[in-house]
Specification:
Length: 206
């Protein structure tokens, strides 16, 4: 097993010239470096997926605005919803995957991996604010694995360089999802049972 210090040095050195890296690793190696505050570190198909933890102003504003919209929406429900921003980890035990969406909604009580204080097993909605470095991975390999989580109702991708949102909503049919793209500030997106204008999501950005 690679020593934690050596692994971190390797990750940081590569990120100086590569915005997105993949390193073959064991779960134990991932867990040894997962909490580094300045890096975004995920685990997928026996690889560490890493990017720099710093985000652009647009990324930060979008995450904040979506968080406010979701908080206000779910506050009207009698049953308890939990809304968590970036840093909350979604764990898929069957696939040995660990992801850090930009927003996670849980319907009811948060279920955590045994022995963990932060690895969520029952996300209801996940939101990914896309970046050039990660969008191909997010919308292909990660999307497939998100769909394997039985509790997920909706997966949402949000562009930060243009008004564009893509949602994948689970239907009552096994393995059948509805994909809807919204590409104009005049569009109204459907998030869970909420209808929200892209003008509100992209307020003061476009």
């Amino acid at each position: 097993m690679v020593q934690t210090a050596e692994l971190l040095d390797s990750i940081r050195e590569r990120l100086l010239t590569e915005p997105f890296i993949r390193i073959p690793a064991s779960v134990e190696e991932y867990e040894s470096v997962a909490d580094e505050w300045d890096l975004k570190i995920e685990y997928h198909n026996e690889e560490i997926i890493a990017t720099m933890g710093k985000v652009t102003p647009n990324h930060s504003k979008l995450s904040f605005l979506i968080g406010v919209i979701l908080h206000n929406f779910y506050a009207t429900f009698d049953n308890e919803f939990e809304i968590m921003e970036s840093g909350a980890c979604v764990h898929i035990p069957t696939l040995k995957s660990y992801y850090q969406p930009d927003m996670t909604v849980v319907d009811g009580k948060v279920k955590l991996k045994e022995g963990s204080t932060s690895e969520i097993l029952n996300p209801y909605i996940v939101v990914e604010v896309l970046s050039k470095a990660t969008q191909d991975f997010d919308m292909s390999e990660k999307l497939v694995n998100y769909k394997a989580i039985e509790t997920i109702k909706q997966i949402i991708f949000v562009a930060q360089d243009k008004p564009w949102i893509s949602t994948y909503t689970r239907t009552n049919e096994p393995n059948v999802w509805i994909n809807t793209d919204y590409d104009s500030l005049e569009n109204v997106a459907i998030i869970d049972s909420l209808t929200v204008s892209l003008k509100d999501i992209y307020k003061k950005i476009f």
